[in-house]
């Protein structure tokens, strides 16, 4: 009832899965990438949100990519 989003753990975050959730009208958040290589992999998936233990480092990574 009124679900608007879903959190997907990094290890199960695959393009087809995120795409399907998006087709269902859900906002998709991938959690818990904490390193540059993981952030790069998640960026290719294009989630709506990313949750990390290091938001400052992630914002810096985004600004420099």
Question: How would you describe this protein?
Answer:
The protein is an alpha/beta fold and 65 residues long. 45% of the residues lie in helices and 20% in strands. It has three helices and three strands. It has helices spanning 15-23, 36-45, 55-64, and strands at residues 5-9, 27-31, 49-51. The protein has a three-stranded parallel sheet. The longest helix is centred in the middle third of the chain and has 10 residues, at 36-45. It is elongated and about 35 Å long. The N and C termini lie far apart (38 Å). The model has no long low-confidence stretch (mean pLDDT 94).
CA distance, first residue to last residue: 38 Å
**Rg estimate, integer Å:** 12 Å
Q: Report the sheet with the most strands, covering strand number, pairing sense and barrel closure.
A: 3 strands, parallel
Structural class: alpha/beta
Spatial order of the strands forming the largest sheet:
1-2-3
Number of β-strand runs:
3
> What percentage of residues falls in helices of 4 or more residues?
40-55%
Report the average pLDDT across residues. 94
Tags for this entry?
65 residues, alpha/beta, three-stranded parallel β-sheet, 3 helices, elongated
């Amino acid at each position: 009832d009124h679900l608007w989003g879903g959190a997907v753990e990094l290890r199960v975050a695959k393009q087809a899965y995120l795409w399907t959730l998006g087709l269902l009208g859900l906002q998709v958040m991938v959690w818990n990438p904490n390193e540059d290589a993981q952030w790069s992999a998640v960026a290719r998936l294009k989630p709506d949100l990313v949750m990390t233990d290091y938001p400052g480092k992630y914002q810096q990574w985004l600004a420099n990519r």
